[in-house]
Design a protein that fits this description.
single chain; 229 residues; Multidrug-efflux Transporter Regulator, Chain: A, Domain 2; 2 domains; two-stranded antiparallel ribbon; 57% helix
Length: 229
């Protein structure tokens, strides 16, 4: 949009707006339209919405330019603008979005009736006997008292098979088991006294929710690390 088109777009809501006011806000660094080789300003839809935010803050909240600049910086960093009718006036840090990679507490507490033989598990994941032996040796796969593998083993075996395509062998996966066992130990230590209290009060076992939070933390740390790599 040209500066004239922007002016026409804003006039119905902000009758006092002028081209000089838009140029002033640009000079203050609050909006940065593109410039053509000949020097003409080209405003994007984002620029126009930014101008609306600035003009609304001045008209309805009487914010000085310093406060507006701080709020725009917060929006540029991903903070959430205040909604209509909310008490908050400044952009707020957003709530974390539900991570599809993290199971819910209900999923963690749900039992499974799946019981697989060694041959069935190996066939499903496409693993040979040597790899199955290695996964057993390094404690990645564990059977129940009857020698069967459960649903979790199915996920482990398929993940191991997928990683093998990248040259990652079962021996390289042992730290995952060690880390998981440490997390489980921490959860059990924390929830053991809470489970008794929950039972006395008729509440649900807190273990699945604590596990969910631990998994969410682990996932967030991994994503943060990858984002910094």
């Amino acid at each position: 949009m040209t500066i004239g088109a922007v002016l026409d777009s804003l006039k119905p809501d902000f009758p006092d707006i002028s081209i000089s006011k838009i140029r002033f806000l640009e000079a203050e660094g609050l909006v940065t339209p593109e410039r053509t080789p000949s020097g003409y300003r080209h405003f994007s839809d984002h620029d126009v919405e930014r101008l609306r935010y600035i003009l609304t803050a001045q008209r309805d909240r009487f914010w000085p330019l310093k406060v507006i600049r701080e709020s725009l910086d917060a929006l540029d960093r991903g903070l959430t603008p205040p909604g209509e009718g909310t008490e908050a006036v400044r952009p707020q840090a957003p709530k974390p979005r539900p991570d599809e990679d993290v199971p819910t507490a209900a999923e963690l507490s749900r039992g499974t009736t799946l019981r697989l033989t060694r041959e069935e598990l190996a066939s499903s994941a496409g693993l040979d006997g040597q790899t199955m032996d290695a996964l057993d040796t390094f404690g990645l796969l564990r059977t129940d008292a009857d020698g069967h593998y459960g649903e979790a083993a199915l996920g482990i075996a398929h993940a191991a098979a997928g990683l093998a395509a990248y040259g990652i062998e079962p021996r390289h996966l042992r730290p995952f088991r060690t880390a998981a066992d440490r997390e489980i130990g921490l959860v059990q230590q924390v929830t053991a006294p809470l489970r008794g209290k929950a039972g006395q009060r008729g509440k649900e076992d807190p273990t699945p929710d604590v596990l969910r939070l631990c998994i969410a933390l682990h996932t967030a740390l991994v994503k943060d690390g990858l984002g910094r790599a």
